[in-house]
Every structure is written in C-alpha cells, then in structure tokens.
Design brief:
Blueprint (H helix, E strand, L loop, with lengths): L10 H9 L3 H12 L4 H6 L14 H4 L11 H8 L2
Helix pairs in contact: 1-2
C-alpha cells in the first residue's frame, strides 16, 4: 500500500504505522483497506480466517463467544507474535 493510495482521512494513521510507532494503526489500515475503507465494515467483520482477526479489537468488544475463556489482551497477543 502506498501513501497516495490511502484516503486523506487515514494518512496520519498510515504515517504512524509506517514509522513503526503503532502496530495497532497498521492493523487498522489493513482492515480498512480490506473492506473498502469503511469503518463500519471493519466493526462488522467476521473473517475469522484472517491472520489479524484476533488483533483487531480487545476481547471485551468482540464478544465472549469468539474467544471463550481467552483473557489475553490484543497487546499481549501482539507482543507474543513478535517473537
């Protein structure tokens, strides 16, 4: 993804992600691009096969049925994935 391909509204997030300061911004941009830059569609996404699905939102916002018994946070999962 090139900066000029990102809608102007999301370019500050793109800059944070590309600088390495915010993995969360990178994940969010990936999701936004995947669903055609619609924030609503990111919230409604149910693509459990996506490798970033577990990192998109904290479990409290995903609902218990998706990760039954999982008490880890998205930050914990990001750190464990970086190993």
């Amino acid at each position: 993804m090139k900066r000029e391909d990102v809608p102007a509204k999301y370019r500050p997030k793109y800059d944070r992600a590309m600088s390495g300061r915010s993995p969360k911004s990178g994940i969010r941009l990936f999701c936004l691009e995947c669903v055609g830059w619609s924030e609503k569609e990111v919230r409604l996404c149910t693509a459990r096969d996506c490798s970033l699905f577990l990192y998109r939102q904290p479990p409290s916002k995903r609902g218990r049925s998706e990760l039954e018994g999982d008490e880890t946070t998205s930050v914990d999962r990001l750190h464990s994935a970086e190993v």
